[in-house]
Amino acid sequence: MEFLDTPDKDGFYGSFGGAFVPECLKTEFKKITAAFLKYKDDAEFNADLNDLYAHYVGRPSPVYFAKNLSRKHGTDIYLKREDLNHTGAHKINHCLGEALLAKRMGKKKIIAETGAGQHGVALATAAALTGLECDIYMGAIDVDKEKPNVDRMQLLGAKVISVAGGTRTLKDAVDAAFEVYVKTYPDVLYAIGSVVGPHPFPMMVEYFQSIVGKEARVQFEELTGNLPECVVACVGGGSNALGIFNGFLHEPSVKLFGVEPLGKGTALGSHAASITYGKEGILHGFKNLVLQDEQGNVADAYSIASGLDYPGVGPKHCYLKTVGRVCYDTVSDDEALDAFYELSRTEGIIPALESAHAVAYAVRLAKEKKYRNILVNLSGRGDKDVEYVLGLKRNVSESK
Predict the structure, then answer these.
(1) Which candidate, 222, 237, 257, 206, places its Cα nearest to that of 376?
(2) Which pLDDT score is estimated for 368?
């Protein structure tokens, strides 16, 4: 199957992507593109980044055979343990790259949005390491829901700005951050937290996350002597999924599954499954599949996992759906919660609610007995979610 690995000169993967931004930002984005293309091939830049990956993040993260979960469901299930990275998720991979790029461009501050707080913590960490100022915009609902990560960001020296407008979730945090960025871009780099946004940001984040798939391919072959039969990852914006998919996109024998959050059901406003239910539209400066109402307005998105709670999705995911290289499906809140508990109690690994969506789908595939083995990107750990999940359980018990 032939398909694009990188976007065209205007940032499009087929009909998705581009940069629909104010005129004042077009020159700045060209500078960012030029700087990224220069430094991604620069020996000194890569030496600095790879040194941090090895000695700061703790890469390579291991691939782990989940023997208890595998025995239970009759299929070999492997986990790419991004939850073991410093800061507890895959987000640190691109945050370090963005921070190093900002320093070389002479920026004084990096700003970003965050949902579950994992990107915010990772960026605050990278800012502390590189001596940059850092502002993190976070929806007010997520500030309350993910308090451990808010505390961590502040401890690391970042300023956390609670966004009380709109739905008070991830979309509104992005809106607020972009409003500020338009006024401050000469001294600031917007370090976008996923493979979303206007060109060149999706391309940049995917590049830095591709290390996950490169490692996983080598590790899986060393463990088993073969490639995995299928690879599973959750999809909100889509950075962890593209990261691990990159190791296998050109292997037609490997089935790739992107798992979207179905939330509470298929009704608009009850989920965040943009690829499954979205329509072509422009959101936050790029063309993608967007959840929209009948009038074409951006609809509210919902997921129990704050990091998946976004009404759009990365342009390359939209493209990969169109050409048929990746199969996208959905997992509900209830299924994700079941997987959260199941992985905790069978393997002693507490996954992030985001990652629990991928675990749930892997269990579903295992029960179907179609594949002998499954590789799951365990994109983050669930420390941040424990209090919230246990609170849900208490609320259910009290209501009975």
Answers:
(1) 257
(2) 96
